[in-house]
């Protein structure tokens, strides 16, 4: 293939990608407008129904969720059990989309008012000691809802670390939602000095700890008995800033899907070693274990279609530096 042909092919591919992203964004905005024109309970019921339909139509996502459930539970969970959890995950995702639509336009007052917070003292304790807090969560429950619920309880600035979405329109939408309730949104990959400075001032920084990405530095940590590539950034931030790592998870009430429980756990124990590398690695393992415990409690709350085991040991990964 000539260089001219390659350029033409690249240009066409880029154009089609932009068109596809534009259509996805337009569809998302249209669905959001439709959702917020309804009463919240109707919109949530519609979202849950759409999630159930997506389970049937999105074969690739359904297959990935079922494969991950089999990987995690093995013979301890039969096929009907895996299907039941996967279906619940999709329904929950659809309902969460409806909730986020209302939050994104400033109409989430009822959602916030009906959220219940348990263990707030676990978050306030380190702040009263003058230490920052890394609020560790995962793709679990309606994790974005915590950004709207927790700040009024806190005597400090709050921020979140956000991964930039490949679709610019959806990325702006997500960033606007997060900025509505947080004073700052850090883009993933921002310099460590910015994070450290924020935490040393006693801020609370929300971070997702279950992301498998080749960006940044990481290590393999067992998650449900299988090695999962895990970034060590949370451990490094805690070491450099003196912040405590506090796990927190938002789970939907099993009997009343309109009610959310935000459970804040005690801070992770700080490793008893003077070696920085060992300290960071030990805290990274503790963070992953905290997420696994939450998923085991309510497996239908975690996004099993999320590619947590994308990388495998033996693959060429970016070298780790401490």
Structural features, described:
With 322 residues, the chain is of the alpha/beta class. The chain folds into 2 domains: 3-104, no CATH class; 115-301. Helices cover 52% and strands 15% of the residues. It has 11 helices and 9 strands. The protein has helices at residues 3-36, 40-57, 59-73, 79-104, 109-113, 120-128, 145-149, 168-181, 192-200, 233-241, 276-297, and strands at 116-118, 133-137, 158-162, 184-187, 204-208, 218-223, 226-231, 244-252, 260-264. A 7-stranded mixed β-sheet has the order 1-9-8-2-5-3-4, sandwiched between helices. Helix 3 crosses helix 4 (79-104).
Strand content: 5-15%
Q: Alpha-carbon distance between the termini? A: 44 Å
Helix-strand string: HHHHHEHEHEHEHEEEHEEH
| Tally of helical runs | 11
Unreliable runs: 318-322
Count of structural domains: 2
Category from helices, strands and their pairing: alpha/beta
What global shape is seen?
A: globular
Overall pLDDT score: 87
Spatial order of the strands forming the largest sheet: 1-9-8-2-5-3-4
Radius of gyration: 20 Å
Helix content: 40-55%
Q: Largest sheet, if any?
A: 7 strands, mixed
How many DSSP-defined strands?
Answer: 9
């Amino acid at each position: 293939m000539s260089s001219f042909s390659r350029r033409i092919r690249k240009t066409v591919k880029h154009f089609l990608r932009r068109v596809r992203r534009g259509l996805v964004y337009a569809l998302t905005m249209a669905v959001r407008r439709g959702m917020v024109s309804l009463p919240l309970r109707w919109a949530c019921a519609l979202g849950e129904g759409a999630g159930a339909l997506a389970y049937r139509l999105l074969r690739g996502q359904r297959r990935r969720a079922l494969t991950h459930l089999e990987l995690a539970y093995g013979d301890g969970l039969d096929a009907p059990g895996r299907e039941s959890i996967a279906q619940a995950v999709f329904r929950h995702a659809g309902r969460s989309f409806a909730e986020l639509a209302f939050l994104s336009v400033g109409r989430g007052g009822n959602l916030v008012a009906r959220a219940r917070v348990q263990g707030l003292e676990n978050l306030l304790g380190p702040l009263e000691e003058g230490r920052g807090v890394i609020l560790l969560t995962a793709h679990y429950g309606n994790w974005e809802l915590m950004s709207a619920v927790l700040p009024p309880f806190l005597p400090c600035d709050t921020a979140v670390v956000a991964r930039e979405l490949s679709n610019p329109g959806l990325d702006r939408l997500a960033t606007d939602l997060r900025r509505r309730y947080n004073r700052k949104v850090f883009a993933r990959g921002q310099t460590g000095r910015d994070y450290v400075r924020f935490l040393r001032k006693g801020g609370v920084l929300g971070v997702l700890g279950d992301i498998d990405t080749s960006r940044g530095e990481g290590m393999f940590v067992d998650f449900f008995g299988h090695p999962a590539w895990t970034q060590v950034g949370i451990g490094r931030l805690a070491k450099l800033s003196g912040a405590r790592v506090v796990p927190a998870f938002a789970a939907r009430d099993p009997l009343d899907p309109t009610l959310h429980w935000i459970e804040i756990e005690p801070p992770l124990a700080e490793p008893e070693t003077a070696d920085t590398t060992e300290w960071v690695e030990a805290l990274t393992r503790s963070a992953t274990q905290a997420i696994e415990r939450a998923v085991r409690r309510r497996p239908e709350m975690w996004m099993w279609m999320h590619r947590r085991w994308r990388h495998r040991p033996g693959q060429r990964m970016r070298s780790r530096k401490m």
